[in-house]
Specification:
Chain lengths: 113, 112
């Protein structure tokens, strides 16, 4: 079945360490997105990519980095510069056909110890 | 400023009761409107969407929503709630996927 796979599901990190969250999709979607979810704050856009080798900052990009070397993959690195990285991270994609419907992965929960 | 408001943080209903979750938005023009549902520790699943046309839209799992332009609202309804509907519900609006604005969510609890 087509979908989005995020890994790991749970991740623990010490302060000062970078960590990379994986997002892979087999939906042949062009656009991919990373959201951060905190309790009571809904979803906030970190980065998005409309096409391979191109990406744009979202509303809260500081302390994060991404790459888009393949259409299927859009990894997110949470750097040590991110002051409050503990959160639930969601990856999504869309085919940009005009439907504007996002398909989401199951999420990765990052906890900084 | 563009925004989405879900005024109810937490709603509790009895199984079999009707449900209405509120969503109000502020946007320059009529945006695309969405309702998503999220089970604990999971991603979001699309319930329904409104782009244009009939202002009453039907979605999955027996949900429906009505777009009211004059009230800038897109409330979600279900005539009879099931225990499996317990989850968090998010309203989202935007002119395109790159600029979607999500509400803060409403957590639904269902009592037997």
């Amino acid at each position: 079945d087509g979908g989005i796979t995020q890994s790991p599901k749970y991740l623990f990190r010490k302060e000062g360490q970078n960590v990379t969250l994986s997002c892979e999709q087999n939906l042949n979607h062009d656009a991919m997105y990373w959201y951060r979810q905190d309790p009571g704050q809904g979803l906030r856009l970190i980065y998005y990519s409309q096409i391979v080798n191109d990406f744009q900052k979202g509303d809260i990009a500081e302390g994060y980095s991404v790459s888009r070397e393949k259409k299927e993959s859009f990894p997110l690195t949470v750097t040590s510069a991110q002051k409050n990285p503990t959160a639930f991270y969601l990856c999504a994609s869309t085919d940009r056909s005009g439907a504007n419907v996002l398909t989401f992965g199951a999420g990765s929960r990052l906890t900084v110890l | 400023a563009q925004s989405v408001t879900q005024p109810d943080i937490h709603i509790t209903v009895s199984e079999g009761a009707s449900l209405e979750l509120r969503c109000n938005y502020s946007y320059g023009a009529t945006p695309y409107l969405f309702w998503y549902v999220q089970s604990p520790g999971q991603g979001l699943q699309l319930l329904l969407k409104y782009f244009s046309g009939d202002t009453l839209v039907q979605g999955i799992k027996g949900f429906e929503a009505e777009f009211k332009r004059s009230q800038s609202s897109f409330n979600l309804r279900k005539p009879s709630v099931h225990w499996s509907d317990a989850a968090e519900y998010f309203c989202a609006v935007g002119a395109n996927t790159d600029k979607l604005i999500f509400g803060t969510g409403t957590r639904l609890q269902v009592f037997p």
